[in-house]
Records
---
Amino acid sequence: MADFLTDKPAQLNRALLIGVQTDDMTEGEGAELLSELKELVENLRITVTRTELINLRRPTPALLLGSGKAEELVALAKADGADVIVFDEALSPAQQRNWEELSGIAVIDRQEVILEIFADRAHTREAILQVALARMEYSLPRLTRAWTHLSRQRGKGAMGGEGETQLEQDRRIVRDRIAHLKSELANVVKQRDVQRRKRQRVPVPTCSIVGYTNAGKSTLLNTLTGAQVLAADKLFATLDPTTRQLVLRGNQKLLVTDTVGFIRRLPHGLVEAFKATLEEVIVAGFLVHVLDVTNPNVEHHHETTLSVLGELGAAEKTIVTVFNKIDAANPAMLQRARRLAPDALFVSAHPRAGLDTLESRCLELIAEAHADTELLVPHARYDVIARLYATGHVHSEEQEDGAVRLHGRFPPSQAAFFAPFVVK
Ligand SMILES: Nc1nc2c(ncn2[C@@H]2O[C@H](COP(=O)(O)OP(=O)(O)OP(=O)(O)O)[C@@H](O)[C@H]2O)c(=O)[nH]1
Ligand SMILES: [Mg+2]
């Protein structure tokens, strides 16, 4: 196998970060994204030597920035002894290549940084496959670069002459590998589906915890259920869904799933790759959206999570908004949060505070969603019976003349479908 697929990333140590502020951004947005990029890069144990925010009027196809500005930035990178330039904006494969030729060092963008962090954190088979797939898809149009995946994986040999055929070979290898990863992933997902279906047969309501990375989702799951999920002050601590049972008042059970953190400008390939993982979000009865009330960018986090949920097709779900970390918040932060989401709950996952209110809210939602009903379904409508078993819970089933009498419950989203058959 070609070495660029298996190479361990060469250690890059010192980075110059470049962010842009464009006309269509709100004031200060470029700076905010840049400081977030700094955190992401530092997560890879790379020292940030300097951050530069550029006012960008008209992006250029060759280098994104004007060539004078580009020369200036390369000189700064050299003066700092940087071995990598990181852009917050997505660079096209051509722009990336041009920058690398101009600077003679690695040039990457936010997407590649995020892919790298995910690669670092992936432990289970599914997460490893998903990240590998996203990386392959990212690298395919970029194979002529001198550097990929933060490493000096290829010399300049791939460019021109004899290299051309090498490039063709590389592309084929990557395409084959993508196809292979996809089929392997499909198998893993199928197995997880079987497990989930087993779980659904047990009439236990479900919810998923979603939110921006580092909001405290895993900590909340741990405190609520006494689980042992890795919670850490680093981005994307969680890559795989973990489901634990929470026992609420009156012995009401609720299955709670922790999920991967969301982030602005999540590489598209990753959203695609993680859709399978995030299916837990789609099938959940309701969502608990956790926000870090102390984070100065909490509004953007709120918006990002809602938009990723939209992409997943989960925008219509009932969402309980929860501001976490009130133990570390000041009154101004709380006020700002209240303005952002007036119906939200305020909690602290660790040390524990306000969680009883959250549990009560969960109980209310379960009661609403799972009110028992009686349905009378003609035998001819076997599809209705099948759907009730698939999406709801059936307590009992009695055969009558030409019809089946069922006691059970169905999710509110299915109310219109089942309404004609409800007798009580
Ligand atoms: N002060 C305070 N810190 C908290 C609270 N809840 C979580 N944290 C801290 O916030 C950091 C992130 O917590 P996690 O639970 O890993 O966050 P997460 O949302 O699961 O993060 P990802 O898995 O990366 O998406 C950790 O250092 C926690 O200790 C809280 O209520 N108060
Ligand atoms: Mg987590």
---
Amino acid sequence: MPYYNYEALREQARGYWPHIHLSLAPQLEEALEKAPRHVSCPVHGGRDGFRLFKDHTENGGAMCNTCGSFPSGFRVLQWLQGWDFPQTLGAVAEVLGGSLPDIRPVNGNGNGNGPAKGRDDERLLQRLRQTWRDAVPLQDEWAQPARRYLMRRGISAATINSTRCRCHPNLAYFVIRLLPLLLK
Ligand SMILES: [Zn+2]
């Protein structure tokens, strides 16, 4: 088993916990979408005893009023998946080793109060504009698979033919999932 340096991995994971958790623990999807609101616990159920910590993007922590408090994203994964610590480190390292989007969520918890706000916003905006420019209109011959997919999902022709919708040749799935979270 390869050796993972916990401290280094924790630093690497900082700011990427929504992506890591969506990849490794999809049962957190509702909590991620509704954060910081309380949702039903992914383990014991109930009505609204579970929530992500305010700095979840940075550190990954969460808590359930019944199951307990999990101060780091690693601990959350151990709890949800029943993994031991080395297993958890390996899984997180694997996700981080893939192609992460070059987008740092705006200032940690996304409230944008920190000093680096302007720079981060600018980078994010540039990256989004570039992504848009790299995409092709859905009328493009090349975008046919995307068009077919949207049609089968019941998306209206008006939307598919709108210039506001494009197909990107090489966007990882999680980027699409994450954008609403990042732009909140
Ligand atoms: Zn619980």
